[in-house]
Amino acid sequence: MPFFPPEVHPSPTRITVVFFDHTANWSGGEISLFNLVTHLDLERFRPVVVMFEDGALREKLDAAGIETHVAVLDQGFNRARKDALGIKRALAPRPVLALFRYVRALQRILREENAQIVHCNSLKADVLGGIAARLARVPTIWHIRDRIADDYLPPRTARAFRFLARAIPTHIITVSNAALEALQLPPAHLESGRALSIHNGTVLGNFTTLSHAPFSSQRIVIGIVGRLTPWKGQHIFLEAAALVHQKFPDVKFQIVGAPLFDAAAEGYEAKLRRQTCDLHLENVVEWFGFRLDVPQLIEQMDVLVHASTSGEPFGQVIIEGMAAAKPVVATNGGGVPEIVIEGETGLLVPMGDAKAMADALLKLCANPQLAQKMGMAGRKRTFEKFGIDTTAGRVQAVYNSILNG
């Protein structure tokens, strides 16, 4: 039985929304999913989350009282990178039959749960869950947390998803205007409200107190948070750190995150550690690995860096840093300019430009008052625009529009 807070008295006529996600890893899109389902109006909506594997997300959802299913998908498909998505493997005769059976299993779950809305949270879930929903004749939302663009995905994959986005879902939510534009949808989708952008929100309650204001101590800490993978740009962060270290040798640099999803990312971590040694930064770079206490770690930083080398669909960690009153140095691509106001809440730099990133960091290190002013402006902006309750309210408005026909 799901747990409900004492003040919640769910109606037996609640609307069942089934969420599909291909992974149960505790990573960006799944954290956003967890935040969303735990902040829905539980008197009106009954969320059920179906994952294609077991893991930390399922454990956290169970602990929060959210109903879950694990429908295991063959790992050959599920671990395929999103820039490949197992397309060649899936088109072989035997895998086609296996995927058909899997889709039928998802369809059975929808019928057993009496799903009234399907909400797909990842690219693989968009396809498999979306087809299952179509077969079950249930309205389907694709919540696209990626940027379907040729500089983010291989061109053929991007074209395939743009085509499927017109054919499978009844509604589309993207996490930024940049992600929405990348889909290249017909104007009718936008004019009718079938496709819209809703920014991610963060749990503002995690940032209600400020125990460490930026540059309030002699020890300056500059941090980067995110999955260790080349496009997240930790190697650019290290190059910039080396330039900052030349002028501010006491500054510490923190790398929070671990490789996920594929072996190539583990090789990237080893490369980063070698780069740290090559740049003679062993004594000033701290490695934290995968952590669940990210808000607490951000709280102890003075500057948060976002270093993605291709346009980020949104940038969840950026709003977390801003909520904690940290000035942000971020790469200027994708949905990031929708979050960071240049010169007011942080500094934007070109993607892949370590020198520009270092210059921005040096500017903040040399001007603590400016850094603190930017941090407080970012906190104000996040509390006004990027709270999870705002996000959940807008998503529920989409549900209501579907239910009202």
TrEMBL record:
GO MF annotation, one: glycosyltransferase activity
Domain Glycosyl transferase family: 217-381
Gene3D superfamilies membership: Glycogen Phosphorylase B
InterPro entries in the record: Glyco_trans_1, Glyco_trans_4-like_N
Start and end residues of each Glycosyltransferase subfamily 4-like N-terminal domain: 57-184
Keywords, in A-Z order: Transferase
PANTHER family: GLYCOSYLTRANSFERASE (PTHR12526)
Entry protein name: Glycosyltransferase involved in cell wall bisynthesis
